[in-house]
Specification:
Elements: E1 11-15, E2 20-21, H1 26-36, E3 41-45, E4 64-68, H2 74-78, H3 104-115, E5 121-124, H4 125-129, E6 135-137, E7 142-144, H5 147-151, E8 155-157, H6 162-173, E9 187-192, E10 202-205, H7 223-228, H8 244-255, E11 258-262, H9 265-268, H10 272-284, E12 293-298, E13 301-305, H11 314-321, E14 328-329, H12 339-344, E15 347-349, E16 351-352, H13 363-367, E17 372-373, H14 376-389, E18 396-397, E19 399-401, H15 415-420, H16 440-450, E20 457-458, H17 466-469, H18 473-482, E21 487-493, H19 497-503, H20 508-524, E22 530-537, H21 544-556, E23 565-566, H22 574-581, H23 602-612, H24 620-629
Parallel strand pairs: 1-3, 1-4, 4-5, 5-8, 10-11, 11-12, 15-19, 18-20, 21-22, 22-23
Antiparallel strand pairs: 2-14, 6-7, 8-9, 9-13, 12-13, 16-17
């Protein structure tokens, strides 16, 4: 600041991550974007949150503090799916843990306010975005208030918020007050109960979006809502009849000045049916083309959410990613390694968003389901800049991707249909007939990228959406022939229809079709290559029998997983709603609503994880006991058809109180601490 002659920063960004000046790190992108607009930007990275002192290091910002937990939700960053503290933090120098607090957005925002009492505080990024309404919090096993209420922030920016951020900064610089800026898409704020932007606005209750039918015990879900949140004189109930397409065509102008009132925080925290109903309504009002504003009462105030942001155009996205990033960590870190940076330093983000809608994933809630893709020329320029600027580049591009590897430039065939659509997924239960699946632009990009001087190889590290890929065999051939470094990540997540239907994932048949293409083109290319499948244990809707069937499938296909994922309920995800309420928000709620089986006990979660690692001797006693309880003792034995052997290696877990368990192999050899016959990992797992 002294060198630049600044007496103050216009905006001070506070982040829970180490500062890496690279577009894959949110604070760098936001900082460079504001800088390009002429604002003086300061960044406070990983401050000591135990006092306000670190938050005063750059003085008082002239416009606002911008607060984020970082690239990850701080609770996901700090805790495992079993609620245990993680031993490292990928976004901290040398992976050092405990450099950020729990619920970092709330803590940082409060410290900013403590540092300067009347300062403007704006919160954003994924932690704030996924907590913008009342939400189930897995770590405390409670429904918590909107992060706006807890953090006392003036404004919340959700989703990819470049438009709102730039407009907000300019309007504040022109002298508008924070309290007067209430019309930005992609923003949330708290207002007095019953507040409306203008007299012409109308308010509808959420039963006009999705009317929950009779439930047990039967009651009118809005009887309490009236008591908690009485309608003001300016509010009306607008009920629009007719099919969805007709309704949108006739009422497009009305929707722009209509807000949907969700059940209040005080209601959803104690009523699982209303929570599921609010979650379903929230997701149905998520398409920027037709979403309405949302209101949720919190005590004597309302949380008001404007409609989601309009996705950036290709030209706008190009400009964001081509700002003058240094493409490396701040020099203050010296020789320290930042694991997240090491992972992405030679990769390029080519798109945003995901129209898959997987219920366990929060990408759609945050980035939206409309794909935002960069131009081919912009991506190629970034590869060249990475080649020329990034230390250690050897000619290997580690990834061209994003949330998925192969949704680049895929979009709805008709913009009018896209704007009217209310589907939660464009690919479930099958790929929508209106969704384009042409991978030609991606094939063209791959070819031009690997032809650049100085580029030896372009790998694809992002997970592949295989149900889309099989629609374009030429793409699969291009990928397998030139862009797989021995292994390709793929995520079937499960084999059984029950859990897959709750995940909104395709059946295992789509995986089989892709696997056939993958192996065929690998043979034709003369390459030995393998798929690395990912699966989820303990997802809502999964029975013990489902996990057993998955384990049998894994063994039949010779997969021995080194790393497995146990379901982690993240805020606002649809699968989290299932976990909390035992109801399915993918369908209308009512007397006949489906009750979803939920895995809560530590023993059952451990069992589902053990089935995924059926080959680990430490799990064999547990699995033997369970198989006997399930009436499947036929799967215990020493043949190829058996899931677990009847013997136990010396020095590994023992069945407590069990008798007759062999500690020698059937061939008479002393058992060592490894998997028996056909032991060790398959080639596909080696190196993972």
């Amino acid at each position: 600041m002294e060198a630049l002659g600044w007496d103050a920063c216009d905006v001070i960004l506070v982040t829970g991550d180490a500062y890496v000046d690279h577009p894959s790190f949110g604070m760098a992108l936001v900082g460079r974007l504001l800088e390009a607009q002429g604002f003086r930007v300061g960044i406070i990275s990983q401050p000591d949150w135990r006092s306000a002192e670190d938050f005063r290091r750059l003085g008082r910002p002239a416009l606002f503090y911008g607060v984020t937990a970082g690239n990850m939700d701080s609770m996901v960053n700090r805790y495992t799916a079993d609620r245990k503290i993680r031993s490292d933090d990928a976004y901290t120098p040398n992976g050092e843990p405990n450099r950020r607090p729990d619920r970092a957005v709330t803590v940082y925002a409060q410290r900013c306010r403590e540092a300067y009492s009347s300062v403007n505080v704006v919160i954003g990024s994924i932690e704030a975005s996924l907590r913008r309404i009342a939400h189930y919090d897995y770590w405390s096993d409670t429904v918590r208030r909107s992060v706006l209420a807890d953090s006392k922030a003036d404004l919340l920016l959700f989703g990819n918020a470049e438009r709102a951020l730039v407009e907000l900064a300019h309007r504040l610089a022109r002298g508008e007050t924070m309290a007067s800026i209430r019309d930005l898409r992609g923003t949330g704020f708290m207002v007095p109960a019953g507040w409306l932007p203008a007299p012409a606005w109308t308010v509808v209750d959420s039963s006009t979006v999705d009317q929950p039918g009779p439930v047990s015990p039967p009651h009118n879900p809005y009887a309490e809502a009236t008591a908690v949140a009485p309608a003001t004189a300016g509010e009306q109930t607008v009920r629009i009849e007719g099919r969805l397409g007709e309704r949108l065509a006739a009422r497009r102008a009305v929707r722009a000045t209509t807000a949907v009132r969700l059940p209040a925080y005080e209601q959803v925290k104690g009523d699982e049916v209303l929570y599921a109903h609010a979650s379903r309504t929230f997701h149905l009002e998520s398409n920027p083309g037709n979403a309405r504003a949302l209101i949720q009462r919190h005590g004597e105030r309302d949380v008001w959410l404007n409609p989601p942001p309009i996705p950036l155009t290709t030209e706008e996205l190009d400009r964001v990613y081509e700002l003058p990033y240094a493409r490396r960590p701040h020099p203050a870190y010296g020789e320290a390694k930042i694991p997240a940076w090491e992972m992405i330093r030679f990769s390029v983000n080519i798109m945003r968003g995901c129209f898959g809608g997987c219920t366990f994933c929060s990408i759609t809630e945050h980035e939206g389901r409309i794909m935002q893709s960069r131009s081919e020329a912009s991506v190629l320029r970034e590869i060249e800049e990475m080649r020329d600027k990034t230390p250690g580049f050897t000619g290997i591009v580690s990834d061209l991707g994003g949330p998925t590897a192969n949704m680049y430039r895929l979009k709805c065939k008709d913009e009018a249909i896209e704007a009217a659509c209310r589907r939660l997924s464009c690919v479930y239960p099958d790929i929508c007939e209106n969704m384009g699946t042409d991978h030609g632009p991606l094939v063209s990009l791959y070819r031009k990228a690997r032809a650049l001087p100085g580029v030896k190889k372009v790998l694809i590290g992002s997970g592949l959406r295989y149900d889309l890929a099989v629609r374009s065999p030429d793409y699969v051939k291009e990928l397998v022939t030139h862009h797989v470094g021995g292994y390709l990540k793929i995520a079937p997540e499960h084999t059984e229809s029950g859990p897959l239907s709750k995940m909104m994932k395709p059946g295992i048949g789509a995986y089989d079709r892709f696997k056939a293409l993958f192996e065929r083109f690998s043979r034709e290319a003369g390459k030995e290559q393998y798929l690395i499948p990912y699966f989820i244990a303990a997802h809502p809707g999964t029975r013990d029998e489902d996990m057993l069937n998955l384990a049998v499938w894994l063994k039949a296909n010779n997969f021995r997983l080194d790393q497995v994922q146990t379901f982690l309920p993240t805020p606002m995800a649809l699968a989290t709603t299932m976990y909390h309420t035992s109801r399915n928000p993918l369908k209308k709620l009512g007397a006949g609503s489906e009750i979803v089986e939920v895995i809560r006990s530590g023993r059952q979660r451990k069992l589902h994880k053990a089935f995924l690692r059926y080959h680990d001797p430490e799990n064999w006693p547990f699995l033997r006991e369970t198989l006997k309880e399930m009436g499947r003792a036929d799967l215990i034995g020493n043949g190829k058809r058996h899931l677990v052997p009847s013997w136990q290696p010396a020095g590994t877990a023992r069945e407590s109180g069990a008798s007759g368990v062999l500690t020698r192999r059937p061939d008479g050899q002393r058992a060592k601490g490894r998997t028996p016959a056909n032991g060790g990992r398959t080639k596909a797992m080696r190196g993972k």
